Amino acid sequence: MEKIITDLRSLNTTELKELAAEKGEKPFRGTQVFEWLHKKGAAGFEDMTNVPKSFAAKVLEDHSLLNMEPVRVLRDEEDGTCKFLMKTYDGNVIESVLMKYEHGYSACISSQVGCRMGCSFCASTIGGKVRDLSAGEMCEQIYTMQRHEGVRISNIVVMGTGEPFDNFDAFVRFYELITDKDGLNISGRNITVSTCGIVEKIRELADRHFALTLAISLHAPDDELRKTIMPVANKYHIEDIMAACDYFFKQTGRRVTFEYSLIAGVNDSPECAMKLVRLIKGRNAHVNLIPVNPVKERDYKRSGQEKTAAFKKLLEKNGINATIRRGMGKNIDAACGQLRRSYMEEDK
Ligand code: SAH
What we know:
Blueprint: H1 13-22, H2 28-39, H3 53-62, E1 69-75, E2 82-87, E3 93-101, E4 104-108, E5 112-114, E6 129-132, H4 135-149, E7 153-158, H5 168-178, E8 191-195, H6 199-208, E9 213-217, H7 223-229, H8 238-252, E10 256-262, H9 270-280, E11 285-291, H10 305-317, E12 322-324, H11 338-347
Parallel strand pairs: 4-7, 7-8, 8-9, 9-10, 10-11, 11-12
Antiparallel strand pairs: 1-2, 2-3, 3-4, 5-6
Helix pairs in contact: 1-2, 4-5, 6-8, 9-10
Bound molecules: S-adenosyl-L-homocysteine.
């Protein structure tokens, strides 16, 4: 019989205590296991020196640890960025990135294997969605990088492959696990989740009052243009996304970030900038300009430095906060999903 896969790393302390009781152990064993997995980054029971082998055996009867195996690690010697290609328990590959900043280490993690959103400039979506990642697998990307590099990660962006709000329950659980006081205890303020704009999930998240940063992948200032590069724009209108963002701000007091990838000749005109101004004016928001990363399968080109600077200037002149995202890992194929694709092509 095939083993039932219940991901042990996806369980919270309460559930682990219940599990311990079920297996005839004192509840504190559950807390111990949680701390080993989430605070100390244990890869398996063999690391858990104070947990009885008999208990481990009983847990593993109907639970698994969905560990990640780093199969390739690319290092940008210039800025210290490390891109990890990780193999999941079922032989899929996903990407995670470790970035070094002055204030510490930041991780960019994936939320799904592949993606079904279909954004035309993004490499992650080319093969479609294979499956969702579990909450534990999202955590494990962080723990694997910490183990591999011997560092502690203090910032997280959920901006790798996948649409986190298309895997919403797992994302919420991930957030609760990674911010748990008995676990890695990362502050919500140091977590950013990026979405292409699944309106009802933005509202659901707002109602949870998590203190995290919400980033919206806008990339166009009106629905018509947005539809040409993001299929999701056919379902959700910018007006409704904006209303959901206002609601998020009302519920959490957290300023929303709008991501805008500049694609030469597509969305980088002064008219686009002015439309964006009108859209965002009066909102407590921030615009992150990202020169688009060219993807081999597409013929998009990034806007030049001058165009990018002019776009930013127009926003600022009109009272909109904007930054140009610092390119990290330029030397290592860092655009979403490109490493995974080249690996899979070689594998064929
Ligand atoms: N699905 C989520 C999160 C993953 S993508 C979302 O859509 O937000 C993280 C960010 O990278 C998004 O803003 C996405 O639009 C952007 N992105 C994807 N491919 C890119 C590329 N080739 N160049 C620049 N940004 C890209």
